From TrEMBL:
Listed name of the protein: Starch-binding associating with outer membrane
Source organism (scientific name): Dysgonomonas macrotermitis
InterPro entries in UniProt: SusD-like_2, TPR-like_helical_dom_sf
CDD domains: SusD (cd08977)
Origin: domain of life: Bacteria
Pfam families the record matches: SusD-like_2
Length: 478
């Protein structure tokens, strides 16, 4: 009897052991990588970043409409600022930024800390993660930062804390990155050229310093001088532009993919009229002639119209974005040489560094023109010498703000941030917009933050202000 019981127990244990083995296998994802590789994570992060920044929800369905680079010609709700906090136009930037980009970049950093990836991987991940956090705080304001990945209900940091924290992260990235260090792979932007990553780090420091300049002038000055004097330098030519170059379908530029199947957008009347007034040679790059050949000139669509009024402008009588932006291989541009030069012009104008603000300003415009294929010296000179283009030292924010807005065409999120900071050009809300004549100053927090992280969400809006599109963020002083 005893032997029978023992045999039964032994058989039962074997059975349960077998079941457990099977259950373990059932819970394994056969397509998942058990040991992630930093090079794959880096490639994926760069591609996701490009799709997010250059795509619909963070770009041409929100920020490009806010800054009146693009306009809706049908389905104009977002061009009239009719958003719900559950709409993908609000949630995609947040969800992709945190759940995909920051998660994967944090993994690269942890692999480096564990010894499974070298310091150059960690430095690039810190740089790219800083860029992600920057576009998030520029869009929403106070955001989770120091507790990201450490809590399912992370506390929010103030925008000031995020900016200053990012400056520290970038300092660390600069010390980690070494052109003589171990090589990295998976870098589909700079092809493993660490010297260019080091230039990007200093350029990001310049960008953040100018974001905080109206609030923390001393820190901004200190940061800019450190970046300018760093031996690694800044982005110093159009060859250094930080951009993701797409390939053929299905890995094509998301703006090109959109126009393959949809016809919802046109270039905004605001920027077409400005470029026309200035005889700007970038106009035929930024816009196409209407398909109705009888029109014979570039015609932008007005922002903020009702659906019917927008449709009545005529699909064939208005200008689509230029083919420069709508080919499969059109790049997703993150940071340009032109932006660096505009930043240096402003730094001189603010008294932070020595030099000629006007010279940097002219060089910035020239770099932008060259970036878009306008290289004829006489054409460039003729443009710079126009009264409407010449640098105005008495109102540097107007000169830099208007030309930076033009140069940023397509870079909706950063154009939106710089327009709020410099207050130029002076844009006017469309006639059917719903914010009582105001334009957006931020994005809504996703509605899921209220339901899943409610206490911290409430603390954030108590600090920052009500969760409205018109609430000004900390950096947006004027």
């Amino acid at each position: 009897m005893y032997k029978n019981i023992v045999s039964l127990l032994a058989a039962t244990l074997v059975l349960f052991s077998s079941c457990n083995d099977q259950l373990d296998k059932i819970n394994e994802n056969p397509n998942a990588t058990e040991n992630p590789y930093p090079n794959y994570l880096l490639t994926g992060s760069l591609k996701h970043a490009a799709d997010l920044y250059w795509g619909a929800d963070a770009g041409f369905n929100t920020s490009l409409l806010f800054v009146q680079h693009w306009a809706s010609i049908q389905y104009t709700e977002t061009d009239r600022y009719e958003f719900a906090n559950s709409s993908t136009s609000v949630t995609t930037l947040w969800n992709t930024g945190y759940a995909t980009l920051i998660t994967d970049l944090d993994k690269i950093i942890s692999l480096a800390d564990e010894g499974s990836a070298n310091d150059n991987y960690k430095g690039t991940a810190l740089a790219l993660r800083s860029w992600v956090y920057l576009i998030l705080t520029d869009a929403y304001g106070d955001i989770p930062y120091t507790e990201t990945g450490k809590s399912v209900t992370p506390a929010y940091n103030t925008q000031k804390e995020v900016y200053t924290g990012l400056l520290s992260d970038l300092e660390q990235a600069q010390t980690l990155l070494s052109a003589s260090g171990e090589a990295i792979s998976g870098d589909v932007v700079y092809d493993g050229d660490i010297s260019k990553w080091k230039k990007l780090v200093n350029s990001l420091r310049l960008r953040i310093a100018l974001r905080i300049a109206d609030r923390e002038s001393d820190l901004a000055k200190q940061t800019i001088n450190a970046a300018v004097n760093d031996a690694a330098g800044l982005i110093s030519s159009n060859d250094d532009i930080f951009q993701f170059v797409y390939t053929s379908s299905p890995q094509q530029n998301p703006q090109a993919a959109r126009f393959e199947t949809r016809d919802d957008y046109r270039v905004s009347k605001t920027i077409v009229d400005k470029l026309t007034d200035l005889s700007d040679p970038r106009l035929p790059v930024y816009a196409q002639l209407p398909t109705d050949t009888s029109v014979g000139k570039y015609v932008g669509a007005a922002n903020g119209l009702s659906n019917s009024d927008a449709n009545n402008q005529g699909f064939a009588k208005t200008s689509k974005p230029g083919t420069f932006f709508l080919t499969d291989v059109s790049p997703a541009v993150f940071y340009t040489y032109s932006e660096v030069l505009f930043g240096l012009a402003e730094a001189v104008a603010r008294g932070y560094i020595s030099g000629s603000a006007e010279q940097y300003y002219n060089q910035a415009i020239t770099a932008s023109l060259n970036q878009f294929g306008i290289t004829n010296a006489s054409e460039v000179s003729e443009y710079l010498n126009q009264a409407g283009v010449k640098y105005d030292a008495a109102n540097y924010k107007k000169s830099i703000g208007e030309q930076k807005w033009i140069a940023f065409f397509g870079q909706g999120l950063d154009a939106f941030a710089e327009w709020r900071r410099l207050d130029y050009p002076q844009l006017v809300a469309g006639p059917s917009s719903v914010l009582e004549g105001q334009l957006p100053s931020r994005y809504y927090y996703p509605g899921t933050e209220q339901s899943l992280n409610g206490d911290n969400y409430k603390k954030a809006i108590a600090d920052q202000g009500v969760d409205l599109l018109t609430t000004k963020l900390w950096f947006d002083v004027y």
